[in-house]
């Protein structure tokens, strides 16, 4: 991950609000009898602000007006996916309950969402912390530094640790790689590569489609993504550093995915997704580079 990524100013985010919370709100619908109230989109940070009342009101308005901004849903799903990957679970996203967003040099979201465990159809509330930045128009990076099922009885305040890029495996550091070589599956490093089978594309389609959606998000506004779905996954080749069993490459915490897919309107897309961890619990990075 390039050092410049986290120094990138928020004004350079692709089709995203600029640096201040005031401008962040200005990107959202203005208040009227038929539009979503502005307090649904941006938290107030005044002194003596009653967060409990705010979140209760926000949750009611999210339900009333049909959901939060698509960005919040997208990054909530990213946080849930990272939790599932690390914990071997398969929690399914249902809806966003609350969120808190702010801009420094990057855009950060604390998101509370509802998820279902398909094992017993139980419902839980899940919390995640996701932030993202754009290094340039072709590379977007998201980092998840928190994810948990919210306990029914409140615990002591969680301690969150920042992402430590120095702990990422050297094999996955630096700028995003170029497209894989033509002889990737037969050449000198062929044991590092694995092409996913059609049955695996179907089995893992939920998070694979999420990766494709995240890649398109680096090019398009989140509102435009719905018209591109569903995707047809054409070919995915996974690269890992270690020579592990083929199927384990797909679930490896550190891996590069070379993905070809087609949108609903028939547009062919290629993208590279680099998934890494710094070894800390709930910490994952997803970097994407999309070629249209």
From TrEMBL:
Organism this protein belongs to: Arabidopsis thaliana (Mouse-ear cress)
Q: What is this protein called?
A: Uncharacterized protein
**NCBIfam families noted in UniProt:** A_thl_para_3677
Chain intervals for the UniProt region annotation (Disordered): 1-39
So which domain of life are we looking at? Eukaryota
